[in-house]
Hints:
- By secondary structure, this protein is α+β, with helices and mostly antiparallel strands.
- The protein has two domains: 6-141, CBS-domain, CATH 3.10.580.10; 144-221, Histidine-containing Protein, Chain: A, CATH 3.30.1340.
- Helices cover 34% and strands 21% of the residues.
- The chain has nine helices and eight strands.
- It has helices at 6-9, 23-33, 53-61, 77-83, 88-91, 105-115, 135-138, 146-161, 189-198; strands at residues 37-41, 47-52, 119-123, 129-134, 169-174, 177-184, 205-212, 219-221.
- The strands form three sheets. It has a four-stranded mixed sheet, covered by helices on one side. Strands 1-2 form a two-stranded antiparallel ribbon.
- Helix 3 (53-61) crosses helix 4 (77-83).
- It is elongated, with a radius of gyration of 24 Å.
- The two termini are 24 Å apart.
- The mean pLDDT is 89.
Amino acid sequence: MLHRTVGDLMTTAVVSVRPDTGFKDIVQHLAEHDITAVPVVDDQARPVGVVSEADLLRKRESQADPGGHLAAAHLLPEESAKAHALTAEGLMSSPAVTARPQWSVVEAARAMARHHVKRLPVVDDAGHLVGIVSRGDLLHVFLRRDPTIREEIMTEVLTRTLGLDPGTVTVQVAEGRVTLTGTVPQSGLIPVVVRLSESVDGVVDVTHQLRAAGDTTAQTLG
């Protein structure tokens, strides 16, 4: 099966800044390119951090409320340092959490969740910046059309991977939700068919009424 990789989904025209880029210049970059964060790269184009809107807003958060309604914010030392920083080097979150082009969508999504970030700079084998992938980019796999998903399950999962006769299993797909019905040679194949179907890009859910050949009772999984 041909799973989409980070390299397939990432943006390659990456806007980046240097560690000495000033606060207002960073804000200008975000506004001009309609982005919410920017990687910070060194002289060899290697990511050393990321400056996000949240990092920039700490400066406003640290300031007094003009209306006098709110008490001064209590910031941790690291947050206070960022609030008073004037360049990307002081503003950025570092080290940069990066991805590789060959990563799967699952690997990238888990890295984002584990590190509580919304995007990952993508680097090559030498650590050079080659792209950036966001949570929105990863969601693009769910835009695949139902007929395309059905064809991949029929051809790649049932026929090529498992060697099954596709005529014995009916595959229906509606809004990314897959329903499998029919028979397989052995009961042990049922969870395998389900698991491989779930792994197809764009699948939202899989339910089945599959049974082993000769078994009159269908096993149902919702």
